[in-house]
Amino acid sequence: MAPLAPRTGDAVFANVERVNAELFTLTYGAIVRQLLTDLEEVEEVNKQLDQMGYNIGVRLIDEFLAKSGVSSCVDFRETADVIAKVGFKMFLGVTASVTNWDAEGTSCSLVLDDNPLVDFVELPDTCQGLYYCNILSGVIRGALEMVSMKTEVTWIRDMLHGDDAYELRVKLLKQVPEEYPYKDDE
Amino acid sequence: MAAIYSLFIINKSGGLIFYKDYGSAGRMDTNDSLRLASLWHSMHAISQQLSPTTGCSGIELLQADTFDLHCFQSLTGTKIFVVCEPSTLHMEGLLKVIYELYTDYVLKNPFYEMEMPIRCELFDVNLSQAIQKDRVPLLGR
């Protein structure tokens, strides 16, 4: 019996190796702190976090697919649900909710009430423009790109800036399926 | 005991990134293995176009007189395929286990460049453990 029938987020989370949450939070905090020291400009740090997230995302997607056993999603709505319920649960231990779909079904919000990256964190006045969790937007963008979806991921609400929750806007720009050069009319 | 002859992993562009043979039946030199990998990549792609049904994701099993070829393609385009004795059981399970080993020991290796040939010791070690003949039936867990 092959080990991989699609599992719920909780089942997958129970099966993957986990690391101490505080270690994770503090390590991430140290990374952001170091980036701020090295790059000095908040915008640069935002970009670098996004790039780091992208590099993580392109590799993370295979682990996600291998361990969760999810099959191909029918449409972007299903993709968003899978990211929120299975993906976030598997890697961060929290689930997100999917809201605010636009009319075409290509853009939605992922709302996180609980975010393990930001425990113990306060932003000083000098870093008010910092998107502390920008690595998450890069991870989602990188992961989706490896399954043929070009997306744009931005932060709408951020608790470190005083809002009541974390809200990520994920917009599907286009589907880019693998092209094989076998067309006869070329 | 049914035997595996060789294992191939190809990246999404069809380049061979990992090849291992088990025993003399599967052995081939580097050029041949590279050629076979790109040949398989093309055949896999063509089969999707030839398929009379929509939503075909390519060849999963090729059965011949002297061997079987089981292929697994991930949603990211990486293909893992194994050439084995005819009627070997549990190969699909093995391919999924190898995919998990790939994600754990290759992709998480910070010195591994994406799409490049795999040179990761932990992957080799864990792969050998997974393939040991007396353990293959146990992979159907």
UniProtKB/TrEMBL annotation, chain A:
One Pfam family matching this protein: TRAPP
Gene: LOC103706811
Record's subunit section: Homodimer.
GO cellular component: endoplasmic reticulum; Golgi apparatus; TRAPP complex
Chief localization: endoplasmic reticulum
GO biological process, one term: Golgi vesicle transport
Organism whose genome encodes this protein: Phoenix dactylifera
Name of the protein this chain belongs to: Trafficking protein particle complex subunit
The protein's role, per its UniProt record: May play a role in vesicular transport from endoplasmic reticulum to Golgi.
From TrEMBL, chain B:
UniProt xrefs under InterPro entries: Longin-like_dom_sf, TRAPPC
Keywords from the UniProt entry: Endoplasmic reticulum, ER-Golgi transport, Golgi apparatus, Transport
Spans traversing the lipid bilayer: none
GO terms under cellular component: endoplasmic reticulum; Golgi apparatus; TRAPP complex
Gene3D superfamilies membership: 3.30.450.70
CDD domains from the UniProt entry: TRAPPC4_synbindin
Pfam families: Sybindin
GO terms, biological process: endoplasmic reticulum to Golgi vesicle-mediated transport
Subcellular location: Endoplasmic reticulum; Golgi apparatus, cis-Golgi network; Golgi apparatus
Domain of life: Eukaryota
Main localization, broad class: endoplasmic reticulum
Family the UniProt entry places it in: Belongs to the TRAPP small subunits family. TRAPPC4 subfamily.
Assembly: Part of the multisubunit transport protein particle (TRAPP) complex.
Protein name in UniProt: Trafficking protein particle complex subunit
Organism of origin: Phoenix dactylifera (Date palm)
Name of the encoding gene: LOC103709630
